[in-house]
Amino acid sequence: MTDLTAALSREQTMLLTTMAHQYLMEDEWPVWQFTVDTLDRHDLDAEELLRSLPRVGSSGHVGPSYGLTTHNSFHISDDDRPALTIAAALHVPELQPYVADPFLRVLHALIAIQRSAPLSTQKAARPRFTLADIERELPGLPRGFLARLPDVLTHEPATWGGSSGTEDGAWWRELRREIRQYRDATTLHEYVHTTARLITAQAEALPAPHPLVPAPAPTPAVGSYVAEELIADLEAKDTTFRTDKLLALVRELNASYADERPYACQMLLRAILDHVPPVFGQKNFQHVVAHGPWGRTEKVYMKQLTEFRASADDALHRQIGTRTSRFSIGDLPIRASVNALLEGVLDHLPALQQQEA
Fold first, then answer.
1. Contact status, residue 335 vs residue 226, Cβ threshold 8 Å
2. What 3-state class would DSSP assign to 313?
3. Of 171, 184, 105, nearest to 137 (Cα)?
4. pLDDT single digits (tens) 117-151
5. In the chain, pLDDT over 70 holds for what percent of residues?
6. pLDDT at 78 over 80
């Protein structure tokens, strides 16, 4: 079972503290773009770090799971406000007096309400509570925490489920009997361990999905790997840089791709990556990825090209041996990443010409 309490890397901790410190200053979680831009200044990818954080339960999008953040999808919109869960306070101690400790007080007050609710032989109904009930039972809770309590309860497994709504202007929520499973969790560590155990058990109890009939293997696409209109724009560009070699490499790459020659494609693409850094004022492709003018999507493409270099090194430099080589045309990076790089080259050629004029 994944350990939500295990030590995080420095980079993972920086992601959590970036979000937590803004919450502590403003009583509101920051928009995702703030977190992305802040970590960009440290050459860190916020989405990649978010996906690397430990989670327990189901690994896909179906079934219960719980981690250190409330958001675990592949892509987060810039104006989304992903929050940290109660478990994250184990790794950001500053959150404990303002988030974790108040939550544990609320949790046990709710357990008491659920256990002491009157019983009925004629009506099946769950007990309800309101924010006024919480204020009455627990005076002195941090105001920012109390204002966000409905959202906190929605994201914590101990208080998942049950109806909620507004009546006469007052928010209310039902209590499920499952909340009693937390009656012995009086500390933050106990709460996190209890949650991890229960979520893991729930995920393991889900029925296995029906096996899918495998789809036939896709036929490698042939034709233009680099967009022909992009090649034409590069050829027409009036610049102080000589682009004859670049154009030759790109055209040979397209021809080799159409003929399904994976080794030639690997070598030609590697040559292109090593050829273009001066256009961006850099010495090598790693610096182009780290310091180039990339948006979030383009940065993902550039990282794919960086990872491809290991494959190209294998194709170029691995000596003959006893193991069969199995490179195919499908091992190349997606075409969008190569086109994004060459679009960047196209955009930067006139800028360099103007600087040298």
1. yes
2. helix
3. 105
4. 888 888 877 888 999 999 999 998 887 888 888 88
5. 89
6. yes
Whether 157 contacts 85, CB under 8 Å:
no
DSSP state of 171: E
Report the distance separating Cα 266 and Cα 328, nearest Å. 10
- What's the number of CA atoms in the CB half-sphere (13 Å) around residue 103? 28
Identity of the residue numbered 207: P
Cα–Cα nearest to 87, from 164, 171, 185: 185
Write the DSSP assignment of 43-85 as a string of letters: T--HHHHHHHS-EEE-SSSSS-EEESBS--SS---TT----B-
pTM for the full predicted model:
0.58
- Two structure tokens written together for 44: 């860190």
The strand pairing partners of 66, in sequence order, are 56
Who contacts 84 (Cβ-Cβ below 8 Å, separation ≥6)?
16, 19, 20, 23, 29, 68, 69, 70, 92, 95, 99
- CA dist 194 and 189 (Å) reads 8
Q: Residues of 72-111 as b/e, b for ≥16 C-beta within 10 angstroms?
A: beeebeeeebbbbbbbbbbbbeebbebbbbbbbebbbbbb
The token pair at 73 is 């999808």
Run of H or E residues at 211: none
Contact 20, 95 (CB under 8 A): yes
